[in-house]
Structure to design on (263 residues):
């Protein structure tokens, strides 16, 4: 924020990978981050390219979307946009590799501590929760409540988000399929694997792709969406480059059309 204030009157544009400019309502930021917001009047846009592309083109400040939020919002956006699910029924369980914690030295980040382990953390309190809710409200026009639980798995990079929601009455599987095609059919970095598919983190490793698959549970009348990204690329630096390309008027895929590392 201190840097943003100093640059506010200068002819430069900002892409911020932190959370300071992700929220349209700074009181939400203050409540979840316990930090006073010093730049409340900043003209900002949420930096999730597939959803806010038009706003990003001319934005002064782009608040690059977080990693968990990118995987979760992209998974749920078509269903929220077309009002196919109950907005108060959403549950997101997401698992991340250790690189999501940054480079800081912490005991739990050491390989011997992480290896052969799987754990949840910040249950009901993770800071990406209001970020997901804000975007889904923008997309669907309804207040949205999300239960979000992050997990840490013994791998270096990648996120797999499993998202659950109750399907509204008389919505068929074909309607859900069509919603994903309508929203993402022309997107460069969203790969629709389709109904009954199983995205995996190794197939997006080192790339800017988000792989999506979905399943219909007729017994519980719920849809389960699986979303896989590389948290360091589509969940961070790659998305920042994508936002830069949009803001600069370049072809959106410049420097990003790289094949995943695996196989």
């Amino acid at each position: 924020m201190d840097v943003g204030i100093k640059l506010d009157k200068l002819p430069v544009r900002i892409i911020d990978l932190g959370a300071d400019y992700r929220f349209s309502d700074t009181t939400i930021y203050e409540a979840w981050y316990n930090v006073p917001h010093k730049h409340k009047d900043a003209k900002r846009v949420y930096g999730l390219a597939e959803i806010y592309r038009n706003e990003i083109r001319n934005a002064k400040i782009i608040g690059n979307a977080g990693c968990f939020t990118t995987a979760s919002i992209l998974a749920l956006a078509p269903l929220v946009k077309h009002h196919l699910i109950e907005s108060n029924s959403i549950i997101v369980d997401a698992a991340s590799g250790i690189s999501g914690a940054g480079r800081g030295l912490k005991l739990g980040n050491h390989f011997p501590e992480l290896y052969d382990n799987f754990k949840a953390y910040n249950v009901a309190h993770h800071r990406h929760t209001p970020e997901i809710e804000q975007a889904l409200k923008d997309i669907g026009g309804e207040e949205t409540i999300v239960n979000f639980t992050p997990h840490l798995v013994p791998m270096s990079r990648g996120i797999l988000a499993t998202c659950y929601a109750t399907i509204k009455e008389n919505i068929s599987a074909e309607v859900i399929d069509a919603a994903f095609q309508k929203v993402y059919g022309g997107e460069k970095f969203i790969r629709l694997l389709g109904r009954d598919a199983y995205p995996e983190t190794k197939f997006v490793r080192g790339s800017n792709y988000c792989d999506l698959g979905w399943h219909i549970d007729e017994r519980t009348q719920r849809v389960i969406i699986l979303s896989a990204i590389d948290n360091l690329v589509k969940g961070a630096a790659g998305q920042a480059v994508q936002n830069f390309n949009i803001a600069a008027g370049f072809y959106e895929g410049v420097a990003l059309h790289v094949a995943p590392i695996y196989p």
